[in-house]
Amino acid sequence: MSFSKSPELLIFDCDAVLVDCELIATTVHIETLAKCGYIISAEEYNDRFIGMTDQQSYSVIESEGGLRLPEDHHERVMAEVANRYTRDLRATSGVRQTLEAIDLKKCVASNSDAAKLCLALKITDLHDFFWPHVFSASQVARGKPAPDLFLFAAQNMNTPAGSCLVIEDSVAGTQAAVAAGMMVIGFVGGSHCLAGHGDKLMEAGATKLFSRMTALPQILERIRI
């Protein structure tokens, strides 16, 4: 897919795009799962579950592990994530400079639950770049890789899907953007991105890749048929 003119709306994923948080969240998840008897490495967790909602990953884990996670499992995970975010979370390098340089409508559409999403944006001082245009998978029936969240964001921003450009780091998010009829470019500058991750994004439908957030304004200038 390509644009006949410059995109009208830029839709950012949050985790590992705007904020470099995946290693923090992954560590909390695997530590909490280990206490429940489910052992998984950080590399495998990232490869399999990044881009899913937490509820989607829990369903897979319960099914294949033959276990039932405690009723308060998600609450305990979120409490520890919030604790570590407050201490360790940082914005992606160059993201503020990039957002200031881009004169396009912008919003966030993330599979994170609303509370976690807003916390991440506030801690990193990115909240004011987007609010109130911050959309969470908790607002739609299906999270990524379904297209629901991106279509919901476009509708709320009064923009046709074909005029939206999505910035994603995950396979599930890339698949969701493609299913929504949106162009998507893959960001591979997150600390969780290993060799070969970009190839997976391209296979999922990303039209190009970039690893430095400060390169985005120039990429946008070049997007034409």
Tally the beta strands: 6
Instruction: Give the assembly state of these chains.
Output: single chain
Broad structural category:
alpha/beta
Q: Average pLDDT, to the nearest integer?
A: 91
Describe the overall structure.
This is HAD-IA family hydrolase. Pfam families: HAD_2. It comes from Rhizobium ruizarguesonis. GO terms for molecular function: hydrolase activity; metal ion binding. Keywords: Hydrolase, Magnesium, Metal-binding. This protein has 225 residues and is an alpha/beta fold. 46% of the residues lie in helices and 11% in strands. It contains 11 helices and 6 strands. The protein has helices at 22-35, 42-49, 54-65, 73-88, 95-101, 114-123, 127-130, 148-156, 171-179, 197-204, 216-222, and strands at residues 9-12, 105-110, 134-136, 164-168, 183-187, 209-210. It has a 6-stranded parallel beta sheet, sandwiched between helices. β5, α10 and β6 (209-210) form a beta-alpha-beta unit. α1 (22-35) runs antiparallel to α4 (73-88) and α4 (73-88) runs parallel beside α6. The longest helix is centred in the middle third of the chain and has 16 residues, at 73-88. The mean pLDDT is 91.
